[in-house]
């Protein structure tokens, strides 16, 4: 559905660009843009993303090193600033190995899909208001469409195909498991992420990124929509395959997951796409929840919003974006990887129901505001009282506790048991014993008559000890 809506919006973008007029439902005015302005913006965005990735790699190493009480990169360049460049040159010059069992076309195409889709998101992210570039007044944004946020979700969804195809086409077990996990991850956490943004659409009345920033002039949406903000932050970490949600890679379980059979520059493409996606989701949460390029209070109140004009807003946008990049690094240095069942349970049983419930609450409040004359404060107070009443009743409901000694009364069934009954081997409990070993029977049958008893006793001691 998302892809269909985005594809239907693309012809509108092209026609609006050709006509040189602003799109309806979009605050930013691109009517004065020409080919040179579009080219300059596109090149600046590309260079910005590549430099930000190099800086983010150095930043992550430094922050994690400080958390672990070690210096981090400090040899290549001042403060180790050239370490990321050295790593890039190392990957560029390494031997490129192609697996014989791989599907060659998809094996080469997968990392390109990931990088290409990661580069598309910033096309609709506003860096600031309109400024003058070579005498042409243009917004600090490449383009915008009435369904810009759906376009962002669509590109993020297609980008996961790079991980899925890369793991499947490698012709190996661990990459295949990583690809399957990636499929489950995008289905689970993309739903929670999309639902968390619905409440922003309801309050802003638009899915255009420039329009959403314009509606946050008085109040940033993360304050009234704090539950949706928290859900989005958790989902964006899961969507970018970062700890504690890096199940498609999982070095401790799957060697390197979907990237196990990749080396040299093909590995670097995946690595680049992961960090660009971190920048993308940080820019999206800044735009939708943190006021976009608008200055924080009380700076925004100085001289009638002087710091919200010109090139100043670029500084506020970058500061907010790097705040969320720091959050990525902080979480990585603090939390451990979840088990796969915990990961899926958290997505389907916690995030998605919470997102649905919050969307219903926001829709009810907004509907009451629009179709009745009830004050918003009264609605919020009534809603808060209802929530408190429900929480209070939940505390009054007695908890079911097992009877004292009930656990000790459960008799363990005597005799033999099947250690593989649950699908995986488990050790015997007290009072239980393993069935006779088929290997022991074969060895005893092949041994001479006098030695059979000795072989059986010695193997029994080994199995017990």
Automatic annotation (TrEMBL):
Composition skew (Low complexity), residue ranges: 443-453
Membrane topology: Multi-pass membrane protein
Enzyme class: translocase
GO terms for MF: NADH dehydrogenase activity; oxidoreductase activity, acting on NAD(P)H, quinone or similar compound as acceptor; quinone binding
GO biological process: one example: aerobic respiration
Record keywords: Cell membrane, Membrane, NAD, Oxidoreductase, Quinone, Signal, Translocase, Transmembrane, Transmembrane helix, Ubiquinone
Compartments, record wording: Cell membrane; Membrane
Cited HAMAP family: NDH1_NuoH (MF_01350)
Protein name as it appears in the record: NADH-quinone oxidoreductase subunit H
Organism: Pengzhenrongella frigida
């Amino acid at each position: 559905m998302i892809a269909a809506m985005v594809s239907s919006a693309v012809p509108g973008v092209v026609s609006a660009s050709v006509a040189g007029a602003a799109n309806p439902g979009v605050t930013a005015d691109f009517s004065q843009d020409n080919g040179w302005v579009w080219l300059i913006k596109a090149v600046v965005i590309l260079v910005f993303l590549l430099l930000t990735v190099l800086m983010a790699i150095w930043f992550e190493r430094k922050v994690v090193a400080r958390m672990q009480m070690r210096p981090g990169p400090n040899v290549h360049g001042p403060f180790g600033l050239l370490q990321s460049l050295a790593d890039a040159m190392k990957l560029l010059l390494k031997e490129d190995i192609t697996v014989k069992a791989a599907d060659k076309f998809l094996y080469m195409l997968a990392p390109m899909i990931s990088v290409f889709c990661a580069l598309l998101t910033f096309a609709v992210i506003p860096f600031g208001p309109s400024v003058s570039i070579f005498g042409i007044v243009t917004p600090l944004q490449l383009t915008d469409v009435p369904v810009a946020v759906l376009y962002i979700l669509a590109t993020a969804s297609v980008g996961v195909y790079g991980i899925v195809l890369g793991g499947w086409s490698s012709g190996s077990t661990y990459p295949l498991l990583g690809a399957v996990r990636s499929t489950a991850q995008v289905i689970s956490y993309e739903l929670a992420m999309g639902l968390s943004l619905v409440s922003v659409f309801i309050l802003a009345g638009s899915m255009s990124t420039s329009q959403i920033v314009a509606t946050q002039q008085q109040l940033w949406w993360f304050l009234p929509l704090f539950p949706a903000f928290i859900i989005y932050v958790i989902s964006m970490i899961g969507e970018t395959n970062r700890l504690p949600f890096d199940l498609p890679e999982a070095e401790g379980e799957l060697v390197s997951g979907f990237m196990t059979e990749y080396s040299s520059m093909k590995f670097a493409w995946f690595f680049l796409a992961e960090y660009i996606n971190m920048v993308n989701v940080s820019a999206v949460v800044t735009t939708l929840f943190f006021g976009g390029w608008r200055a924080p209070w009380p700076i925004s109140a100085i001289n009638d919003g002087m710091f919200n004009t010109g090139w100043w807003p670029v500084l506020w946008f970058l500061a907010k974006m790097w705040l969320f990049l720091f959050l990525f690094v902080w979480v990585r240095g603090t939390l451990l990887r979840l088990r796969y069942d915990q990961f899926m349970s958290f997505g389907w049983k916690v995030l998605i129901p919470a997102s649905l419930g919050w969307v219903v609450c926001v829709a009810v409040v907004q509907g009451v505001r629009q179709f009745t004359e009830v004050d918003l404060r009264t609605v919020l107070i009534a809603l808060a009282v209802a929530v408190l009443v429900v929480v209070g009743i939940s505390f009054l409901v007695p908890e079911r506790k097992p009877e004292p000694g009930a656990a000790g009364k459960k008799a363990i069934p005597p005799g033999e048991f099947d250690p593989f009954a649950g699908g995986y081997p488990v050790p015997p409990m007290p009072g239980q014993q393993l069935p006779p070993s088929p290997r022991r029977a074969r060895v005893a049958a092949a041994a001479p008559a006098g030695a059979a008893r000795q072989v059986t006793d010695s193997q029994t001691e080994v199995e017990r000890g």
